[in-house]
Automatic annotation (TrEMBL):
Native source species: Enterococcus italicus (strain DSM 15952 / CCUG 50447 / LMG 22039 / TP 1.5)
Statement: the UniProt record of this protein carries the keyword Transmembrane: yes
Membrane topology: Multi-pass membrane protein
Protein name: CorA-like protein
GO CC annotations, alphabetized: membrane
PANTHER family: MAGNESIUM AND COBALT TRANSPORTER, TRANSPORTER-RELATED
Source species taxonomy: Bacteria, Bacillati, Bacillota, Bacilli, Lactobacillales
């Protein structure tokens, strides 16, 4: 789908393609992508891999015979749809800026455009503001997800102290996987945006220091939290391993104690089962009961001793 807008002094407005200066490609078909590539003489592979979580963040400039100098900024956004796996929720945003035109490619699973227009359409009056508010919105999505992950980490931490069930372990593995993807996405975006802030004149063209500060603050918060949460998950994973080892040790300790109790009773029975002369009670009709009582008493005394030594827990 191709959506067309016009960025005016009063904000972003819906417009026809002939008067628009911002074109958005969302859930675009191959025919629509080919149409845009040919119309504006873009590189044929510019949208290849546009729905892959492994797409590389980058900042690039190139000359274009149709639009003049192009600035291409590839970012990563996170969809709110938690029913999808993390690699499907991470979606590239490809921004192509020309002097009179801006093109934006949005992933197929994205609801970014609707969210962005609802919150920021009235604030954007030029392409620099468009770029800045898009970056700000992506970090709002990352921070929202990290807040949800923190709740999951707290639940896993509580579970690690009380259970070693498979469900908790599977949830830990899924959360670790999510954090790895998010960490890689944020680290890749960090390098690209640091170059944008420090090596280009974008901040000067934007002319809004507060907006730049707010974006960089969100960026720093997201990068700091992902590192903290990754360490917390490693700690919880270690706690799960320690708890399982402790449970196994306690089980082995109990089984060893039970084996010792049974073996002592078996020893008594084995001695009286020897086929030799001179055994006490051999000639009496109550010899069997005597041996059984002796075995039970010895086993009970052994159990009491082991319990006092805390060997049965």
């Amino acid at each position: 789908m191709i959506s067309t807008f016009k960025i005016t002094d009063s904000g972003i407005e819906k417009a026809t393609q002939d008067v628009s200066n911002w074109i958005v490609l969302q859930k675009a078909t191959k025919v629509e992508l080919t149409e845009i590539v040919e119309k504006y003489e873009l590189p044929k592979d510019i949208f290849v891999g546009g729905d892959d979580a492994e797409e590389i963040n980058q900042y690039e400039k190139m000359n274009n015979d149709r639009l003049g100098e192009l600035t291409i900024l590839s970012l990563m956004n996170l969809s709110d749809n938690r029913e999808l796996p993390i690699e499907k929720r991470l979606e590239p945003l490809i921004l192509i800026f020309a002097k009179e035109m801006t093109l934006t490619f949005v992933g197929d699973n994205s609801d970014f455009l609707t969210s962005f227009l609802t919150r920021s359409a009235h604030k954007v009056t030029n392409k620099e503001q468009l770029c800045a508010y898009i970056i700000k919105r992506t970090y709002a999505h990352f921070l929202k997800e990290l807040k949800t992950i923190k709740k999951i980490i707290d639940e896993l931490d509580a579970a690690a102290r009380t259970t070693t069930k498979n469900e908790a372990l599977f949830r830990l593995a899924d959360t670790q996987r999510d954090v790895v993807y998010l960490d890689n996405a944020l680290q890749g975006q960090k390098e690209t945006l640091n170059y944008l802030w420090e090596e280009t004149n974008f901040a000067q063209q934007l002319g809004d220091e507060n907006l730049v500060y707010n974006i960089r603050l969100r960026q720093a918060h997201a990068e700091e939290r992902i590192l903290i949460y990754r360490d917390l998950l490693e700690t919880i994973g270690g706690l799960f391993s320690d708890m399982m080892s402790n449970h196994l040790n306690r089980l082995m300790k109990f089984l060893d104690s039970a084996t010792l109790v049974v073996s002592i009773a078996a020893l008594v029975a084995g001695i009286w089962g020897m086929n030799t002369g001179g055994l006490p009670g051999k000639e009496t009709k109550n010899g069997f009961f005597f041996v059984m009582i002796l075995a039970v008493v010895v086993s009970i005394l052994t159990t009491i001793y082991l319990k006092r030594k805390d060997f049965t827990k």
